[in-house]
Design brief:
The protein contains 27 helices and 31 strands. The protein has 863 residues and is α+β, with helices and mostly antiparallel strands. The structure holds phenylalanine and zinc ion. This is Aminopeptidase N.
């Protein structure tokens, strides 16, 4: 529980400009653990060396630790004091010393899942960003790098497996049924990359031979019974290792690479050096329990964490303001990897969908911040879509501007120059400039300015010469009223729609100015413009086009992403018009969907993405004031119209046998995805036989992709089949936490009118628990993303989410704080909803003893 007396009245704001180099370095650390679920004794021996010119006391951060003894160079030392929860050791004018501190911690009481905690009888750690200070007193800042030696001892029956970073040096038996292991990591690392695991685990072992011929022993450690579900993760790991060698020239650097899966985890996974710790969600997969999307998630996250070994571990961050240095780059790397493993256009479509769903709203709201923030109160609140996903877009733009060869020169230079260092975003950009021989002075604004740039486009004509006039604006964001134009790559092409005349082939323009004119060439009639192809810049394009032009592009553009965009824009225009009571474009949408179904029939994965209607939230983002009810109504109406008009096509797709669930090729995944989309359209059309059809698919499914898609479709309705299927699903999977999460999730996603009440009821279900972040996200995360339900006019949805935040905060502030942003979007809604949302934020803030995490998010959300 949060101790109210230790919560500062006003959270302290940390500023990027206040960075000072550390006064002490710690080349070596020896940690000694006597493990126990309720009491673990930790002795930390830090060999400290003065880095500052003038003597300064040694400041060691602590969080919830009480030192039981302090020794310096082996002798008891009394010259120390506690300042708040930190330990100050006065070392006089010594240049170097070994400082040893003993403390005892209680992992079983650690419900925040930061530091050393117990999960299912096993002990594990999570240290990023500032969790190490909950294990041992330490500066706990990423620019202090040390070689770690870790000795751990514990009961052999309770903890048969003892793991830490690096290589195992020695192990042995102790007294009274105990055993011990000594691990050593030769690579200096910051404290946030420390990890330890002790428990009863089984391993899937494999080997990888690196490009220089070194053998690496790979291990994926899970609970007994889960071993059969680790094969996909292992394949993904080996593919990642190979890909990083081939594409970036990066080789693995230890004899072992271990991954441990734990079921209680705040985030997706963690890149601890040589010992990644994963949320089970991103390791365990088999066709019966995981969907194709889950499989892709496993592959992407395994790759992400592995790639951190270079982008994050060998080159780490100087301070937490530089978080995007490792996260933006690593997301870009995992996106490129997944694109190479499957379909690149479909992967790009998915990544852009995530960016628009999670990052654009953040950039337009009260929590907007640059990818390199200027200040924070609680760093955990800055593991955001902006730092990660917009950060990846910024790296992608540099890669686009430089081209593959020069980009590789830039990354080679970056890794060579900063290996073993704690670097900054500026260091990365400079390496790109020098390696890529390009001036990125203006481009640096992407690191400084928040807000999604908007490009307003207009065509101009001089005789038969056509031009594109681009006007760039960057909206004001909290603390940043005036913005300067950004440098960005804009890929475009132009087509003569009658197929005659000239076409401008794929062209890369570089935008730098507020207003800029780009020549398109000679056309006898107004050309169709294909713009921001491949989503070359993370911007909003404001360009009015007739439905006919969009439909033409959806059919004829030679860039698949641009075809997708054209159809999405057509749908979006139609839906936005419908919400304001104007009927337009519906026939063009139906025609374009029909055309896509036949025209791209050989690429079902692409078709499935392209014919999907924009989400309710994304429709809302286009409006001045979001009207969740009208959006729900009009989206359902368009879905029903497409469902009915193309009924034969949807039925034909469903009449073909589904590929076997064990077939995980991109083609098979695409066919299953399209079947799910077809079923949803058919269901929307309201045809009476659909619940029966969905139930048959649910019952006959040989894998989770089909089963979940059918269940989700049924969950929207009120058929007998719905209740029956939910019950069967529950009975079958009640003992599998990851699958049970899906059971909560599909109900929270439901478009039924009673979803708020249903979610409240599910929160009282025996299988619901606040102790497990996955379960909390499955129910409340899904619910907060269900726009019409969450924004129910009486405010019941807001109350439900605020109740959760209040109940969860004392237990797990990090996960509680992540639930606040949906309430912070109040400015986008009508006055009645605004008042209700603000009242809930105020109610949260009025709670005594609120964490720093929730305080920061809730108070900023009210501004
Ligand atoms: N660094 C992790 C990643 O992105 C994310 C993470 C952050 C995990 C904080 C746990 C805590 O790979
Ligand atoms: Zn990461």
């Amino acid at each position: 529980m949060t101790d109210a007396s230790s919560t500062p009245a006003l959270p302290v704001t940390i500023h990027r400009g206040d960075y000072r180099p550390p006064e002490w370095q710690i080349p070596d650390i020896a940690l000694d653990f006597e493990l126990g679920i309720e009491a673990t004794r930790v002795t930390a021996a830090l060999s400290v060396v003065r880095a500052a010119a003038a003597p300064a006391p040694l400041l060691l951060r602590g969080d919830g630790l009480t030192p039981s003894a302090v020794r310096v160079d082996g002798a008891v030392w009394n010259d120390w004091r506690l300042e708040g929860s930190d330990l100050i050791v006065d070392l006089g004018d010594r240049q170097a010393a070994t400082v040893e501190v003993d403390a005892v911690i209680d992992p079983s009481a650690n419900t925040q899942l930061m530091g050393l905690y117990a999960s299912n009888g096993m002990l594990c750690t999570q240290c990023e960003a500032e969790g190490f200070r909950r294990i041992a007193f330490h500066p706990d800042r990423p620019d202090v790098l040390s070689r770690y030696r870790v000795r751990m001892a514990g009961d052999k029956a309770a903890f048969p497996i003892l793991l830490s970073n690096g290589n195992i040096i020695e192990s042995g038996e102790g007294e009274g049924g105990t055993h011990w292991a000594l691990w050593e990591d030769p690579w200096p690392k910051p404290s946030y990359l420390f990890a330890l695991v002790a428990g009863d685990l089984v391993v899937n072992r494999d080997r990888f031979t690196t490009m220089s011929g070194r053998a690496v022993e790979l291990g994926i450690w899970v609970r007994a019974g889960d071993l059969d579900r680790t094969h996909h993760a292992m394949t993904a790991l080996k593919h990642s290792m190979k890909w990083d060698e081939e594409v970036y020239g990066r080789e693995y650097d230890l004899d072992r690479f271990n991954i441990v899966a734990v079921s209680d985890f705040n985030m997706g996974a963690m890149e601890n050096k040589g010992l990644n710790i994963f949320n089970t969600r991103y390791i365990l997969a088999d066709p019966d329990t995981a969907t194709d999307a889950d499989y892709d998630g496993v592959e992407g996250v395994v790759a992400h964490e592995y790639f951190h070994n270079w982008s994050g571990n060998r080159v780490t961050c100087r301070d937490w303001f530089q978080l995007s240095l490792k996260e933006g780059f690593t997301v870009y790397r995992d996106q490129s990897f997944s694109a190479a493993m499957g379909s690149a256009p479909v992967k790009r479509i998915e990544d852009v969908r995530v960016l628009r769903a999670a990052q654009f709203p953040e950039d337009a709201g009260p929590l907007a911040h640059p990818i390199r923030p200027d200040s924070y109160q609680e760093i955990s609140n800055f593991y955001t879509a902006t730092v990660y996903n917009k950060g990846a877009e910024v790296i992608r733009m540099m890669a686009t501007l430089l081209g593959p060869e020069r980009f590789r020169k830039g990354t080679d230079l970056y890794f060579a120059r900063h290996d073993g260092e704690a670097a900054t975003c500026e260091d990365f950009v400079r390496a790109m400039e020098e390696g890529g021989d390009i001036d990125l002075s203006q481009f640096r604004r992407w690191y400084e300015q928040a807000g999604t740039p908007k490009l307003h486009l207009a065509l101009a004509q001089e005789g038969e010469d056509w031009f594109l006039d681009v006007t760039q604006t960057v909206p004001p964001t909290p603390g940043q009223d005036d913005k300067a134009p950004m440098m960005m790559p804009l890929r475009l092409a132009a087509f003569a729609m009658d197929g005659s005349g000239a076409a401008l082939p794929d062209t890369l323009a570089t935008l730098t100015d507020v207003v800029q004119r780009i020549p398109l060439g000679r056309f006898t009639a107004r050309p169709a413009l294909s713009v921001n192809r491949g989503f070359s810049a993370p911007v909003i394009v404001d360009y009015e086009r007739a439905p006919g032009e969009l439909a033409w592009l959806a059919a004829h553009d030679d860039d698949p992403f641009a075809r997708y965009e054209a159809l999405q824009q057509l749908m979006l225009d139609t839906l936005v018009a419908a919400v304001s009571g104007e009927a337009k474009g519906r026939e063009a949408v139906i025609g374009a969907v029909a055309q896509t179904l036949t025209g791209a029939a050989d690429d079902p994965a692409f078709v499935a993405e392209a014919v999907l209607l924009p989400s309710e939230a994304f429709i809302g983002d286009q409006m001045v004031t979001v009207d969740p009810d009208a959006i729900r109504r009009e989206r359902l109406a368009l879905q029903a119209a497409i469902g009915a008009a193309l009924e034969r096509e949807w039925r034909a797709i469903l009449a073909q046998a589904a590929p076997p669930a064990t077939d995980l090729t991109p083609a098979a995944k695409g066919r299953r995805r399209l079947r799910g989309v077809a079923l949803a359209y058919l269901a929307a059309s309201g045809k009476g036989d659909v619940p029966g059809l969905a139930f048959a698919i649910f019952s006959n499914a040989d894998g989770m992709t089909e089963r979940q898609a059918a269940l989700a479709t049924l969950a929207h309705g009120d058929s007998d089949e719905r209740a029956h299927a939910l019950d069967i699903f529950y009975q079958r999977y009640r003992d599998n936490p990851l699958v049970l999460d899906k059971w909560f999730q599909v109900q929270a996603w439901s478009q039924r009118a009673d979803t708020v009440a249903a979610v409240a009821e599910l929160a009282r279900h025996a299988d619901f628990t606040l102790a497990n972040p996955n379960r909390v996200r499955a129910l409340y995360g899904a619910f907060a993303g269900n726009q019409a339900a969450f924004h129910q006019a009486d405010g019941a949805g807001y109350r439900l989410l605020a109740d959760l935040v209040i109940a969860l905060d004392p237990r797990n502030p990090q996960t509680a704080a992540r639930m606040i942003p949906p309430l912070g979007r109040w400015k986008r809604f009508d006055e009645a909803r605004q008042a209700l949302m603000k009242a809930e934020l105020e109610r949260i803030l009025a709670q005594p003893g609120l964490s720093r995490d929730v305080t920061e998010q809730a108070s900023k959300s009210l501004m």
